[in-house]
Specification:
Layout: H1 3-9, H2 16-48, H3 51-87, H4 91-118, H5 120-126, H6 134-144, H7 148-163, H8 167-191, H9 195-219, H10 236-309, H11 313-340, H12 342-346, H13 354-367, H14 371-387, H15 390-403, H16 406-416, H17 418-453
Helix pairs in contact: 2-3, 2-8, 2-9, 2-10, 3-4, 3-6, 3-7, 3-10, 4-7, 5-6, 6-9, 7-8, 7-9, 8-9, 10-11, 10-13, 10-14, 10-15, 11-14, 13-17, 14-15, 14-17, 15-17, 16-17
Length: 454
């Protein structure tokens, strides 16, 4: 048996604690590195341009989320198929899935770039850009749009690489990109004084080099899978399942795009550009805190998918429990840290505006109240995605992003002002965690019956 095939098969027999650690740590490092793209831009811009610069990047954030949503549709919808097909020892089908995913990347890249260029100012104004911020946002986005294909390639290919049991290489994709982004931001913003243009240039160049890194993995045939001419022949059954499985997480992200736009518009009406800057810092810290749990979910996904495809339901149940407990303990720890040191965390982005610091500290103290319970919802979502259970994943994500978020967002701000905006986040975390736990428990009971039938 080839070594590369053994890398996939070990998910069926290696100790689960060791496997989850081996898959999660690279994913966690990679997720944190990925979050640093926007965080680093906001840190450099916050100190060089000021609160208005942070507001300009925050207004553009919904477009970044749209790219991520597209990447999740393709990446999750494909990697779920890849891991299950490898579990069934069907490498040809797995290659077909990966080739068709590349076609999807090309199509969506063209669509996003052209839409962004033709309707840039209109989109940014819908996202809450004021007359003061719109020139900075346009300056930033004009360059960022060129990096969309590179971002989708590195994002989606990392899903493929993890699906076949190579999480360390996927981790280095994001680490290299993050390190280059920091270095290039320093050169363009601090050394050359290019301001928000430098932030955009640093991001795009880092995304390009990260894309080159993942392409090399397959050009050199370093994994189980490789590209072949027949893999690029469109297969509608692959696209159908890609959309079916990836639709739920992608829809969740798109709902978050809508919510972010709504948040921008509510905040700018209540507190102007400064309130949007506070939300930009809040979301930057939020992504840094939440990404490790996403990393655990990413590490969990191929293990669950492989063992479910192989009929190892006991291993599925044990690794899900292990991941859930680990995520809960991590969030409990970070919740305490966020409550004890919110000012110090905020000052990483701007240390001169006391009004901005006070507003962001208030956002953190209120917004993170439900953080520990959110871990259950996140892990549950990844489990359903790994199993190809699109309906359950869709229900969970719809409830989190619609029923638990939109009503509080529309009701609380008119009553409590800006505090009402921050108060919506604990409602989402607690409601989503309770529902995810209930649904996951029901799913795991089915695994016992599957085993008994055998």
């Amino acid at each position: 048996m080839k070594k590369n095939t053994q890398d996939s098969n070990r998910m069926g027999y290696d100790p689960l604690g060791k496997l989850l650690l081996q898959f999660s740590i690279p994913a966690i490092i990679g997720m944190v590195a990925s979050a640093l793209y926007n965080i680093v831009d906001r840190i450099f811009i916050g100190h060089s341009v000021g609160p208005q610069g942070i507001a300009a990047i925050t207004v553009a954030f919904p477009f970044f989320l749209t790219i991520i949503s597209t990447g999740m549709l393709i990446g999750i919808g494909s990697s779920s198929q890849i891991s299950r097909n490898l579990g069934k020892d069907d490498e040809q089908r797995a290659r077909k899935v990966m080739g068709n995913a590349v076609l999807a990347i090309a199509f969506f890249s063209f669509f996003l770039v052209t839409t962004g260029f033709f309707f840039m100012e209109e989109l940014m104004r819908v996202c809450g850009a004021s007359d003061v911020v719109i020139p900075l946002t346009t300056e930033y986005m004009t360059i960022i749009l060129w990096g969309v294909p590179f971002q989708l390639i590195s994002f989606c290919f990392n899903y493929f690489i993890r699906a076949e049991g190579q999480p360390r290489y996927a981790m280095w994709t994001l680490i290299i990109g993050a390190i280059l982004n920091v270095l290039l931001d320093w050169i363009f913003i601090v050394h050359m004084g290019l301001g928000i243009t430098g932030a955009a240039l640093g991001t795009v160049m880092a995304q390009f080099l990260a894309a080159c890194w993942v392409i090399v993995f397959y050009l050199k045939k370093m994994g189980t899978l490789y590209f072949s001419r027949e893999a690029f022949v469109p297969d509608w059954s692959v696209f159908k399942e890609m959309i079916f499985v990836g639709f739920s997480p992608a829809l969740m992200e798109m709902f978050f795009v809508v919510v972010t736009v709504l948040l921008n518009r509510i905040l700018v009406s209540l507190g102007g550009d400064l309130a949007i800057s506070a939300m930009g810092i809040f979301f930057s810290l939020d992504s840094l805190i939440f990404m490790p749990i996403v990393g655990i979910g990413e590490g969990l996904q191929p293990i669950v998918g492989f063992n479910y495809g192989a009929g190892n339901f006991d291993r599925c149940r044990k690794v899900v429990k292990l991941a859930t407990v680990s995520a809960f303990l991590f969030f409990s720890t970070t919740f305490i840290l966020a409550q004890l040191f919110p000012r110090e965390l905020t000052m990483m982005f701007n240390s001169t505006s006391e009004e901005l610091i006070a507003l962001t500290v208030r956002a953190m103290r209120i917004g993170y109240l439900g953080m520990p319970i959110a871990s259950i919802a996140i892990i549950s979502g990844f489990v359903f995605q790994a199993l190809g259970k699109a309906r359950q994943s869709l229900i969970l994500n719809l409830c989190r992003q619609v029923f638990f978020l939109l009503p509080p967002l529309l009701i609380l701000p008119p009553i409590w002002g800006i505090d009402g905006v921050w108060s919506t986040f604990p409602v989402v975390d607690i409601g989503g965690g309770l529902l995810g736990g209930f649904m996951l428990r029901a799913e795991m009971k089915k695994w016992k019956s599957f085993k008994n039938e055998e």
